[in-house]
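Late entry, evening session. Most of the bench is empty. Finally got around to the prediction I had been postponing all week. Sequence below, unchanged from the version circulated by S.P.
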Amino acid sequence: MATKPNLNDHVSLLFELYNRIPRLSRVTAIELQQQLADVAVVRDIRTVQRNLDVLVRHLNVYKDTRDRPYGYHRASLPIKTFGPRESMLLQLAEGWLTQSFPLEYKAIINSIFTEIHQVKTQSASTQNDNHQPYSDVQPQPLIKNYSTKFNAVFEQLTYGIIQQQIVNIVLDESELSIEPLSLWIHSNTLFIVFRCLEYDYQHIEIEKIQDANLSTFNFKYPDDFNLKNYQDQHISKSNLASNSANQAHHEPIRFINLLNNQNNK
């Protein structure tokens, strides 16, 4: 006759199961049984299922019964709320971004921060309309006169950076394929740091780019590139914007000439 497990064994099994139940995906009882067996905790499937039912009844474990085999997952972690200090920083950040980017970005920025305020910050409903806890942020804009192409160029470059995709840009009506690595804000100017495939790293004011289109080709982020080192190297020069224009203007033209020469072969 089989003996029942003691209380310690039962509790240990519950913890072993609970710690193996994911938050963002589903796991089945059979998969959990195999995971337990891998660490020398051997239980039959009925025992695993009974203990899972205990977790569903008493802890934040959910059982998906829409299809067999049933899947189990844990509830997401509770959202941390921000206190007054964090809330103030968010307000200032929103003000800075709103004043620094074109008017068309205001709705996007406000939408992002409104959601954060509603979900993660403590309620400020007791404040009346006359109570303004901070003055309007009045930074110098990153770009004083945005071109009509800025929005499209900025979006394509950000996609390229995040997704590590090559972006085809237009400089002085000449096309150039770049690997966008990072945005760089310096002296109220917005730069893009990039690599021209096998050529050296360069940077240029985004406003100088006349057009940009995301390609379908990905690139591997270079192992030898360090943004901080690159910034330290170029920030010591007397005129960053001037240097960037020289570096990122003549070199692309040389790169384009090489491409043209290859295409003519």
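Two things to note before I forget:
The mean pLDDT is 78.
DSSP finds eight helices and eight strands in the chain.
Will write this up properly tomorrow.
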